[in-house]
Amino acid sequence: MKKNWWKESVVYQIYPKSFNDSNGDGIGDINGIIEKLDYLKELGVNVLWISPMLESPQDDNGYDISDYRRIYKDYGTMDDYEKLLEEAHRREIKVLMDLVVNHTSDEHQWFLESKKSKDNPYRDYYIWKNPVNGKEPNNWGGCFGGSAWEYDDETQMYYLHLFSKKQPDLNWENEKVRQEVYDMMKFWCDKGIDGFRMDVISMISKDQSFPDGKVGSGLYGDFGPYCVHGPRVHEFLKEMNREVLSKYDIMTVGETSGVTIEEAQKYAGENSGELNMVFQFEHVEDASQHAEFGKWTTARYDFKAFKKTMIKWQEQLQGKAWNSLFLGNHDQPRSVSRFGNDNPAYREISAKMLATCLHMMQGTPYVYQGEELGMTNVYFDKLEDYRDIESIQYYTELTDSGLMNPDYMMKCLMLRSRDNARTPMQWNDSEQAGFTKGQPWIKVNPNYKEINAKSQLADPDSIFHYYQKLIRIRKEKDIVVYGEFEPLYREDDQIFAYIRRLGEERLLTVCNFSEHPAEMEIPEEFTKARCLISNLERKSFEGKIVLKPYEAFVLYK
């Protein structure tokens, strides 16, 4: 297997709006990130993926870009961004930019031109269609609810938006659009960024016949089969690689919802000529596959299905493509609330257990801001506390149509809303958790007095220091990065355990995912092995043992 710096890295995702506010306006900013670089250096991460920081009306918190070459005014200036790059690089931390090129904002200059007239030079930068029988061109629904088509009075045609109506989809069939995107990417690479996380990159190619989608329990048809991993997506990414990516030593990760093993190998195979790695979401979408309204369910995740999925991706990409390892991000609920146990009795132990399980696998681990502190879901119980466009639009659509009872939908939001991940970072126990001197754009989780960075930095047994140790082990031991993966206890409904092998070295990771004790036998080859890390200070690691609730450890020999 080829060695690469991005395989050996640990990435930390920053959601800039909620990370650290340096000027008291209630919104995180670039200078706020610079202030915390020493904290990130101490944690041990060496790559930052920062969610979009470009000019935007903020309809979808920056994933609606109105100018690809300007920094969003509330976050700072281009000078601030250049200083961030310089200060991060001085600490040997690389910076990934969030690349959002499936769609722009409807306030982008291209779109303002595009909608002026049918013969405007920018018209086919976007996807315009005539009405069919006086209605939408097809029955597709958007990712945030409602139709995926918006009527424009000016030219009496519809434009496609797979997300919000303020996020019109770019027409990648148009070579000019592709060249504009590549020029913009070169602009940022020449500034010294270290790579791209590519937003919904698997959606850039659409089936040009635009057929109706299958209607499930909701009101609209599914665009998935015609827009996700579309007919030309690999051709476009190979072209992007030739034109831009191959010319720089950068890291690329594609967000590819619904990706299969076979597709992932095309996107991120060792010699695919496309991307370094992809995000697959099967392990965080398991529960929603079976729920009537997708992610809007109160069902707890199914551990055995989760484990099966995690093992599948480890085994089947091994030697063929590279995994991204994550349990949380800006679109997912907090991982300890979802996969662990955020009850105070188990929060710390289960947060450490989850981290152990993830960080000892093969792939590049991602830490979402606050995960290293065991930050939890916020569980807002009033709709007016939510800020997320997806949560608010689905609440309205599903309750207004009578498909869901308002009380039940609020419970779904408490468990599944993206805002769970977007409450301000909890720096200390002062007012507003030390995030801002002003009024934050979204409420702080009230548990910040117990859960915050300041108290964890002072406590050698904290989740923060546990993460620091896991990251250090990965840097010191090649086996964690490059070792082969072999699962144990495949069918067990509490234990997730696996061996990694590299030459003569062996690594055993054992995790109990439940609040009940679990029995297991330590494999004989690990007699007299050394314990590298353990979340419950276990002393004996031989023969038959009983794991305590949420116990985890790693043995090395």
UniProtKB/TrEMBL annotation:
Query: Keywords of this protein's UniProt record, alphabetized?
Result: Hydrolase
- Keyword presence, Phosphoprotein: no
Q: Which CDD domains match?
A: AmyAc_SI_OligoGlu_DGase (cd11333)
| Domain (Glycosyl hydrolase family 13 catalytic) ranges | 13-422
Transmembrane parts of this sequence? none
- InterPro entries annotated for this entry? GH, GH13_cat_dom, Glyco_hydro_b, Malt_amylase-like_C, O16G_dom_2
Q: Which PANTHER family match?
A: ALPHA-AMYLASE FAMILY MEMBER, OLIGO-1,6-GLUCOSIDASE 1
Write out the similarity annotation: Belongs to the glycosyl hydrolase 13 family.
Q: What name has this protein been given in UniProt?
A: Alpha-glucosidase
Its source organism is Blautia acetigignens
